[in-house]
Design a protein that fits this description.
Blueprint lengths: L2 H11 L1 E4 L5 H20 L15 E4 L2 H4 L1 H6 L3 H11 L3 E11 L9 E2 H5 L9 E7 L11 E2 L21 E2 L7 E5 L3 E3 L10 E10 L8 H4 L2 H6 L2 H6 L11 H6 L10
Antiparallel strand pairs: 1-8, 2-3, 3-10, 4-9, 5-8, 5-10, 6-7, 6-9
The protein binds 2-oxoglutaric acid (AKG).
Length: 264
């Protein structure tokens, strides 16, 4: 796999499919654990169906993956995923969320959106977030692959979207074990699963620049046991270190017009 070519695709097109990041049997094992996480969510009173995102009950949404199983804590820091995240966002990023959407036969498309548009007001001038989509099944148009508008990472405000935006979406195709890397500015929606019996399980690892508020408040949503188990690196990527946000201050410090260090 020529990862450098994939990175160029990501930077130019806002999107790339990277096959073979997981072996097929690993993808199967993670899918089993995902279903266990879905059951555990229900058991704890966190609903997985009809939560207001999807048109019907054939989508299974699993939240709090990092709390549910160590396997997801490993996946969110997978070196290949992190390599693509830093390609787009630089090393100044935090883990914003990690969730799953299992589209079962009969599921339909949600509303078209961009993930950066959910956490940052327009204009969207730079990539400030990225999704690493883990494909746990073979994914194609029939079983509801995510549909996206090619080139839409260049859209700076919602008013630039054409009237018939939904018609301009195309599905991706990827074998189980692939990741799909999607610039947070890309407009997309879930596809309808029109297959007879094929499941489509996708995990969405969402990362954003450190100055963007994370979608998930990890302080409030991880248990003391899980917090205790985190490596220093993962704590840092979750934004759990006791340190101030000085990302932009660093730039002031080298700006010749200021001539002195800020006192923050
Ligand atoms: O499941 C999909 O294909 C897309 C899901 C999505 O875009 C979302 O949940 O925001």
């Amino acid at each position: 796999m020529d990862l450098e070519a994939k990175k160029r695709q990501l930077l130019e097109n806002g999107f790339c499919v990277v096959p073979g990041v997981l072996a097929r049997d690993e993808a199967d094992r993670i899918r089993e654990r995902l279903w266990q996480a879905a059951e555990e969510s229900e058991r704890r009173g966190v609903p997985t169906r009809q939560i207001g995102l999807d048109p019907n009950e054939h989508n299974v949404r699993v939240f709090y993956l990092l709390e549910r199983d160590a396997i997801f804590r490993e996946l969110i820091q997978h070196p290949t995923a992190i390599e693509f995240v830093t390609t787009l966002l630089t090393s100044d990023f935090l883990i914003s969320n990690f969730t799953a959407n299992i589209a079962l036969p009969g599921s339909k498309s949600m509303e078209l959106h961009s993930d950066q548009g959910i956490v940052v007001p327009e204009p969207w001038l730079q990539p400030w977030s990225v999704n690493i989509i883990w494909c746990l099944n073979d994914v194609d148009e029939e079983n509801g692959a995510t549909r996206y508008i090619p080139g839409s990472h260049k859209i700076q405000s919602a008013s630039e979207l054409p009237e018939n935006a939904a018609e301009k979406t195309v599905p991706f195709e990827a074998p189980a074990g692939s990741i799909v890397v999607m610039d947070g500015r890309v407009w997309h929606t879930s596809g309808a699963n029109v297959s007879q019996s094929r499941e489509r399980a996708l995990l969405f690892g969402y990362y954003s620049r450190s100055f963007v508020r994370q979608q998930q408040n990890w302080n409030a949503s991880l248990s003391p046991e899980t917090l205790e188990s985190l490596s220093p690196q993962l704590r840092s990527w979750l934004g759990l270190e006791p340190r101030a946000n000085v990302t932009l201050g660093a730039r002031l410090r080298i700006h010749p017009a200021h001539g002195r260090r800020p006192t923050t």
